[in-house]
Amino acid sequence: MSGLYLPKEYLAILLFIVLGVGFGVVTLWIGQFFRMKRPYFEKLVAYESGNPPTDEPRMRFSVKFYLIAILFIVFDVEAIYLYSWALVYDKLGMFALVEMFIFIALLLVGYFYGWKKGALQWEK
Amino acid sequence: MPIIIPTLDFAALIPILAIITTGLVVLLLDIYVEDKAVLGYVSLIGLLATAIACFGLLTQTVAPTFQNMLVSDGYSLVLDLIFVVTATLSIMIALSYLPARDMQSGEYYALLLFATSGMMLMGAATDLIVVFLGLEIMSIALYVLAAFNRRQLGSGEAGLKYFVLGAFASAFFLYGVALTYGATGSTNLQTIAMWFSANPAYAHNPIAMVGLALLLIGFAFKIAAVPFQWWTPDVYHGAPTSVTAFMSVGAKAAGFAALVRLLLVSFGAIPDWRWVISWLAVLTMTGGNIVALAQKDVKRMLAYSSIAHAGYILVGVVPGTPDGVKGILFYLMSYAFMNIGAFAVIALLEQRDQIGSSIESYMGLSSRKPLLALMMLFFMFSLTGIPPFIGFWGKWYVFWAAVKGGASWLAIVGMINSVISAFYYLSVVVQMYMRSPTEPSELEFAPLSLPVTLTIALAGAVTLLLGLWPTPLIKLTALGIFG
């Protein structure tokens, strides 16, 4: 039948999604018929590594956490590229070396800029 | 297994690399230079170098390179020149506008240059992934720029609205890329076209069609086409005027750049999108113009008028012919001069935030600042499309391409809309020339700062001179023809 297009290759992915979600939902649902349910106050408070919670979780954070996190992500991603680059480095030769150093130089500009602008200083 | 490095022709990247390098230099200089205006001039030098590089490359063709990811053809180079003009004029406005509002900073110029590099990438991209890359480089910089006036709530609102809705549009676009890839097995524009010509039976399969629809939604958002225009007035009105000038032209041109290449190259064999674009054009022209009629604020009026102009340019997309491409390029270049010129006048007259962009503040401008009023008259006439000005030729070529491409009815709708638009453009002229200033307005003390005055003079001169003698621009845009 012309005009009808069914990508059969994707059927496996659809099944995987349905089964994956379904397994979690169904196990939890069936579990509630068998498990004991005896709630008391300590069980219902938010779990914070065993310490009793002291504050509301919705408090204001310093924007500096955010800056540090961004800088961390940048170099985290750089590390991912460096690993794969290092694996095939001997096959790529000079070209790869130059390319990678350009990449690192670009990141360094950003790092240097953030550093000089005081993004790494906790107290200004 | 040996790894074969694909052919990398860096010549294709020269304009983009020049812009990015300038941006990085500005960023580094920002740490050490106290007088931030210097950074604006450094950016202008970088843009000048980029323009020279573009003119140098125009004469030679470069085959698609970086594994068919991008190409440096006449089309992308003419677009590069449009982006350079846009960035240059907006930086010149910013050099006056930012210090007057205590917003002068180096990041502004760096972000503007990075946004420009993203636009250039969209013009040169021949792969949907690279289009997305350019789109995001441009958009993220523009989100920040829209919110640049931190002390003013309206600017923050503009940035946030643009960011939230822009992220939505990017998601639509990306989903469209995914579905197109699922249907055709490629993200490369040429390969998609080859798949369609090889499998004509599957040309209308729902996955490819929904993919195309989602891609169109993503672009329609970026070019501010009705019914995806809701963000436009608030963002254009709230953002600093120098930023509004930049994104009303730059983001629109970049959206059209990638849209035209996508439709003509990849979906050229499937004419169905012509109907969609036709109706999008009719809605956009009419919707933008009718709402613009009711505006009492010139900046907001120009926001709606920019929606209407997106509609006129969409008329040029419909025929999908080289004439249409030429018309679009001509229109975008002329729009850059006349629209940024008009925004420069607003930037000059705006004394404080929100004050000075209301239409009443233009009353009797001709008696107080005759030359400035004359320039504003040029821009308003040109935006309407009145003959001796460049805007007339832009409309002429776009509508002519539509007539030749068998869409005469669209050209007629466009002309009717031009008449509607005359009401609100000319009302500004009426205010300036036929009303007397009622009160000693604060506008009398607006300082004439040199860079923005130069911008207005330059844009006004080009609007008139290229309108009287459009041959150079016709020759330039003819180099951008493809398809």
On the 0 to 100 scale, the average pLDDT of chain A is 84
The counted number of beta strands of chain A is 0
Radius of gyration of chain A: 26 Å
Strand content of chain B: under 5%
Q: Count up the helices of chain B.
A: 19
Q: Biggest interface in this structure? A: A-B, 17 and 17 residues
Output the structural class of chain A: mainly alpha
Which spans of chain B have pLDDT < 50 for at least 5 consecutive residues? none
Identify the overall geometry of chain A: flat
Helix content of chain B: over 70%
The averaged pLDDT of chain B comes out at 90
Describe this structure in words.
- The complex is a heterodimer of chains A (124) and B (483).
- In chain A, helix 3 packs antiparallel against helix 5 (94-116).
- Chain A is 65% helix and 0% strand.
- Chain A has five helices and no strands.
- Chain A is flat, with a radius of gyration of 26 Å.
- Chain B has 483 residues and is mainly α.
- Chain B has a domain at 287-483.
- Chain B is built from 19 helices and two strands.
- Chain B has helices at 14-32, 37-58, 74-100, 106-124, 128-146, 153-184, 189-198, 206-222, 232-238, 241-266, 273-293, 298-317, 322-349, 365-368, 370-384, 390-404, 408-434, 450-468, 471-478; strands at residues 62-65, 70-72.
- In chain B, helix 3 packs parallel to helix 13 (322-349) and helix 10 runs parallel beside helix 12 (298-317).
- The longest helix of chain B is centred in the middle third of the chain and has 32 residues, at 153-184.
- The two termini of chain B are 39 Å apart.
- The chains are: A mainly alpha (124), B mainly alpha (483).
- Chain A binds chain B through residues 2-5, 7, 10, 88, 91-92, 95, 106, 109-110, 112-113, 116-117, and chain B through 2-3, 5, 24, 27-28, 30-31, 182-183, 201-202, 204-208.
Quick recap of the structure?
Chain A has helices spanning 11-34, 41-44, 63-87, 89-92, 94-116. With 124 residues, chain A is mostly helical.
